[in-house]
UniProtKB/TrEMBL annotation:
Protein name, as recorded: M20/M25/M40 family peptidase
GO molecular function, one term: peptidase activity
Pfam family, one: Peptidase_M20
Sorted UniProt keywords: Hydrolase, Metal-binding, Protease
Keyword Metal-binding: yes
Amino acid sequence: MTPSLSILSDLLSIPSVSTDPEFASGMEDARSYLLTLFTSLGFTAHLLPGRLHPAVFASYIVNPSHPTVLIYGHYDVQPAGAPSQWTTPAFEPSIRKNRIYARGATDNKGQFMIHVMAVRKMLESDALPINVKFLIEGEEEIGSPGIELLTENYKTLLSADYLFLSDTEMPALGQPAIDITLRGCLDVEIHIQTSAQDLHSGQFGGVAPNPAQILAKFLSRLKNGSNKITLPGFYTDVISPNDEEIRDFRKTEPSDTQLLKEGHYFFVGGGENRYSLNRRRWFEPTLDITGLDSGYTGIGTKSIIPDTASAKISIRFVPDQDPEQIYSSLASSLHHSLPKATVWRLIRYPVASAFKAPTDHPVFELVKSSLKSVFGRPAVFQGQGGSIGSVPVLVRALGLPAVMIGFGLPDENLHSPNEHFSLENYFKGIETMSRIYSALPVLHLPNRPESIPIILETSSPGLL
Ligand SMILES: [Zn+2]
């Protein structure tokens, strides 16, 4: 086993499950493992407070005038689940068919370790031309409850010119990709009540309102026949992908059959047909009913008019939609659709923001060309339909471009039994990242007052 692989393997053997207090010592062991690792590489490393679990922060400043990258990762993992479902134990890393199997292998220990090992490689050959900061969070798998406050409190410490992270996937082995969008998420719950108790449906049917039907009517009107969301003002701020992005989305456009196979569902639907499938899942907002409850749902029948009805709704919004505006539009539509004396309540959950990478920034050209030279194939822009809460928070607070390069693969069983990570991608990832980090100083630095001048040699100065 090469040193860069055994360092990863040792980290994977630590059960750092953030959601379960029984694993508190595993969380602590992972932190001290990382602190020792960073210190041994010459970094200054310490902990930063989280809501429940501290984050590990490490920095290596070569020269304050050099560009600085902030690299994000998370050391916490999902619970392993039933041991019987794992071929080899979740916290005993095992290598089979050029993959390393363990909980956290792809999500996210293997992926952030790519960056650590790239920097280690550059330090070993005395060729680190940039300043490096690592922020390795311990609360990602529980929704990053502390990231906002942490970022706010340590803004100066975290300040950098670029944010890099690998916590996503490439479309297939051999096809590198850069993630340029994250959808945001707004979850709400609607409760309505039209009587103090369930009513006899024979005695009161026809004279008492039915909350289930009132709610169903409201919900069914939230999308029109073409699956366009009908909330007033909903689409006003939606930004469209540019031509290059649309072209790239086409390159990885799945067939209907592929999608159905991937998601184990029966037919394609729920979005607007006029857009490609990739655009629908990465660049278009959606609204889904995620739960419905009313009346009697036990065995047999019960002849009642229920007293209450409730629904849970999840809205995946896109840049630059404003979740506040969406929420008030939903609240006012609900208010206006309900009969006057209906008692109602709208509950909202914490919002994850949407994100769009500034793909016209020169760093994306550098990343594309580095991926191409290592993987032998042009990288494509792709999106993520889900959210990574920390990215928009860091981008907003620190004002830097975020570069998301996923080295995971779609079938690596993250959050499931037999999670694994491709060793081909691990080593190619290390090679790619060291190329990118080596070349960063030649780029124009947007966060600095002056860009580095490019001197062209010319025999006739007047022509410059
Ligand atoms: Zn995860």
